[in-house]
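G., the chain you wanted modeled:
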Amino acid sequence: MKEIIRFLLSAGAALLLVAPSARAVDLERVKDIYGPCAACHGEFGQGGKKGEYPRIAGQQPKYMFQQLKNFQSQARINLPMYPFVKERDLPDEEMKLVSEWLASVVLPTKQPEFKETDDALTRLLAMEKVMIIPRAEGDIELGGQVYQKQCAACHGKTGLGRGMFPMLVGQYTNYLKRQIDAYLKSERAHDEEVMKEGVLFSLSEKDIQDVLAYLTSIQEVEK
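Predicted structure as tokens:
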């Protein structure tokens, strides 16, 4: 696994698409920091195929850093995460570095066009990083209306997030639903400094399902 990660994160691994800002990131340090994370979140930060682990590639870096801090302080309880973020193992500097790198990783939402000269390995690696979330059931039009009225102010009109508010589009529907249920059951609290209280509680179960369906319909927006 370490050899795969080392290849994918190396400067010469052209198959891993990253935004220009990633060029300033120390990839040698990133691969050491991110290595243990790949076991659950995948080599590209794509998470689990069924949403058992969230996608973290392309996520807002400020939000990512804050969640790592919350895991570390146990303000957000997640026992599997805690051993990886204890202060002696993952200081703030490294949390910020890996958060910035992950924010720069681009996962295409369309299948790539191959050249006749592309070998099997090239095709395989390119396809592995394509991430298309299956269309969720629900009324897309109504979901869009609810999203733009209730969610867009914080999470952005195209669901890409902003600042301390996470990207929602391109995230696994099952994962989003679990987190919504956790909020509604008070098993996971909103960060009172950055989240508007009560928005989820104002939505019906159908509203939420329609919003989830809408998010899967706009994932081809350029990230």
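The CA atoms of residues 135 and 217 lie 7 Å apart.

Shout if anything looks off.
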